[in-house]
Design a protein that fits this description.
With 281 residues, this protein is α+β, with helices and mostly antiparallel strands. The protein is built from 6 helices and 18 strands. It has a 9-stranded mixed sheet with strand order 3-2-1-13-10-9-16-4-5, covered by helices on one side. The chain is globular and about 55 Å long. The model has no long low-confidence stretch (mean pLDDT 97).
């Protein structure tokens, strides 16, 4: 299934995209794509529905982040071998975890404001997993049973704040709009091989990133299991899993985003995002 949330920010309704790419309204069946709806049992109930029995809705609706109720937005740094090389960093021996503030979450086509005082705003196309059930100290073999599905994430990053302001990457990763998710949540049963997801990202139509999850140093199951060793992941939590090479900070000379730039990114299964970057007023 491809699950979405549509409507104005803060009042999104749950929906799905059917096999004919028609937007269907799920609000008569569930309150939101959150909580128990994301569990194995909850998703089975949705799979049992006939999508064509659900009301069609206007495809021009804004799409919001495809999951609600997120309490923890976890990210993994330097998790692609070529990306670690381009930044001149050592390959981690354990997943390098950090947080993005939940308040950074945005829809896949929402605009992004470049914060006042920032100078090095960068892009990162990533695949995120959405947690479906409470997950604490689970083994690698068990980990993917706790994942509801996958979605795209642009891990927008302010490099000066991330690297030059005394540590704690959350500072450079968490401005409003720095966590676009979606356009949809693709349930795990739809992803035949998570280790073969191709990713791309363009800035103003120029290809900047091309990669595949096959280059991940730590795979999805390892990351979820590892994170769960230290803290509980709850339904709706997001774990975004690193980016391929081609970020602006890795270029010579570095290239960073400015007002008016348009970033697009995608994967054939997970859809596409588009963000227009604007200056702060």
């Amino acid at each position: 299934m491809r699950l979405v949330r549509f409507g104005e920010s803060g009042v999104e309704k749950p929906g799905l995209i059917d096999a004919d790419n028609t937007l269907r309204d799920l609000s008569g069946e569930i309150d939101d794509i959150a909580g128990a709806v994301l569990s194995r049992a909850g998703l089975e109930k949705l799979r049992a529905l006939d999508p064509k029995s659900l009301p069609k809705t206007d495809p021009s609706h804004r799409l919001g982040p495809p999951v609600a109720g997120t309490r923890n937005f976890v990210a993994v740094g330097r998790n692609y071998a070529e990306h670690a090389a381009e930044t001149g960093s050592d390959v981690p021996t354990e997943p390098l975890l950090f947080n993005k503030a939940v308040s950074s979450i945005a829809g896949p086509r929402d605009g992004v404001v470049i914060p006042k005082g920032s100078s090095k705003v960068d892009w990162e196309v990533e695949v995120a997993v959405v947690i479906g059930e409470r997950c604490y100290q689970v083994t690698k073999a068990e980990a993917m049973d706790y994942v509801a599905g996958f979605c795209l994430c642009n891990d927008v990053s302010e490099r000066a704040w991330q690297k030059d302001r005394g540590g704690q990457w959350i500072k450079g990763k968490s401005a409003p709009g720095f966590g676009p998710l979606g356009p949809w949540l693709v349930t795990s049963d739809e992803i035949e091989d998570p280790a073969a997801l191709e990713l791309w990202l363009d800035v103003n139509g120029q290809r900047m990133q091309t990669g595949t999850t096959a280059d991940m140093i730590f795979d999805f199951a390892t990351i979820v299991s590892y994170a769960s060793e230290f803290f509980a992941l709850e339904p709706g939590d997001i774990v975004t899993t690193g980016t391929p090479h081609g970020v602006g900070a890795g270029m010579k000379p570095p290239v960073f985003l400015k007002a008016g730039d348009i970033v697009t990114l995608g994967n054939p299964k997970l859809g596409e995002q588009r963000q227009v970057f604007a200056a702060a007023e």
